[in-house]
Amino acid sequence: MTSELTGGWAPRVWVGAPAPGGLALPAAHPTAAHLYSPRGVHLDASHLVVADSGNHRVLVWHGVPTSDEQPADVVLGQPDERTEGRAAGGRGPERGMAVPCGVLVHEGRLVVADAWNHRVLVWDTVPVTSDVAPDLVLGQDDPAAVEPNRGRGCAADSMYWPFGIAVVGGRFWVADTGNRRVLGWDGGLPDHDRPADVVLGQPDAAHREENRGGDVGPDSFRWPHDVTGTDDLLLVADAGDHRVLGWTPHPGADGPAGTVLGQPDLRSAEEWPYGPHTGDRFRSPYAVALLDGTLAVADTANNRILLWDGVPADGRAADHVLGQPSFAANGENRWSAVDRDTLCWPYGLSLHGDRLAVADSGNNRVMLWGRS
After folding, report:
1. To 5 degrees, how large is the angle CA 39–CA 26–CA 85?
2. pLDDT tens digits, residue range 79-131?
3. DSSP 312-334
4. Is 179 within 8 Å of 209 (Cβ atoms)?
5. Omega into 11 within 30° of 0, i.e. cis?
6. Distance of CA 293 to CAs 52, 307, 309, 320, 340, Å?
7. What is the three-class DSSP state of 196?
8. What Cα–Cα distance (Å) separates residue 180 from each residue in 40, 176, 238?
9. Which residue in 24, 166, 172, 361 has the fewest CB atoms around it within 10 Å?
10. How far apart are CA 233 and CA 96, in angstroms?
């Protein structure tokens, strides 16, 4: 691929099992270097954190990996690096996880969206040893509880499949995917049991219907999955409606988005699986990341990453594409061999400086891309 097509981005370091030419099957007994369908990733100057979703665990590298297949330093959610499964070695959810997805380090605290346990976990510091229990559980009555919406009705303090998390504009945001809404807490990470201050996508905290029980619109979600933005812009990847919605300024209450990417208007939800492909239509965009004017969208089911030089206000096509030979292609691993610059269902993104971390879920790896 040309540098102009990719915007100067190129793959640097591969974390996960090797896949010489073909798809790597997940290991029957994982190690600290193996991944199985990773869905979330966080990158900063001091850490790489990966939601190793298929192994029901989170891996932490202290320091950014510098070599391929480098093993993680810390394993959370399992008693050791070779155990997998939702039961966490038979000990229950107090230390275990079920399909963790979103991961985040904010002000020195590690945050994990433990999606299928319908909760968010918080460690007051990023653990330096494995098998450490979280210090705080959000969305459940106690660390042993795992029922959707706390086993009660949908409310401002409950969750159902929370997949994405972010701190944007001073608020802590959760893409509460199964409730088809986005929750926001003023002042950052909340205390246990505190209800959300903002509920986006539903008429009130008790409702959870797809697209508010009607047609797609500027104030509805089908499958909100990730959140990013700046101090004056909030972006939500609404994967089920094949679009990214934007609010400027940040909404202080439920209300319509003002901009959309991936659709011609705010009332369209057309899936775009077949050609001719372009850079302005999506198919199940599960992740979105924004940093210093670079916008990245994981166009997951089209097996590509779309990049914009600046956030478009008019829905224009992307400036660059990763993982495909052109904007017109969408094949898994380009319908060819697995290579360093191919993608198969990219599910999570994280931007930091001149690095882009991609949770390349279908290839059971995370690839760190660099920009020259």
Report:
1. 70
2. 999 999 887 767 789 999 999 999 999 999 999 999 999 999 999 999 999 99
3. -SS-PPPSEEESSSSTT---GGG
4. no
5. no
6. 29, 10, 6, 14, 26
7. coil
8. 19, 6, 9
9. 24
10. 35
Which residue reads 């590690």 in tokens? 110
Per-residue tokens: 241: 């409606």
The two structure tokens encoding residue 306: 């779309």
Beta bridge partners of 366: 15, 359
Provide the whole-model pTM.
Answer: 0.97
Question: Do 348 and 51 touch, CB atoms closer than 8 A?
Answer: yes
CA distance 225 to 288: 9
Instruction: Report whether pLDDT(240) > 90.
Output: yes
Answer whether 283's CB lies under 8 Å from 271's CB: yes
CA-wise closest residue to 270 among 232, 221, 216, 317? 216
- For the sheet containing 320-322, what is the strand order? 285-291, 294-299, 304-309, 320-322
- 3-371 in CATH: which number? 2.120.10.30
What would the two tokens of residue 188 be?
Answer: 């950052």
| Chain segment 266-288, per-residue pLDDT in tens | 999 998 776 566 899 999 999 99
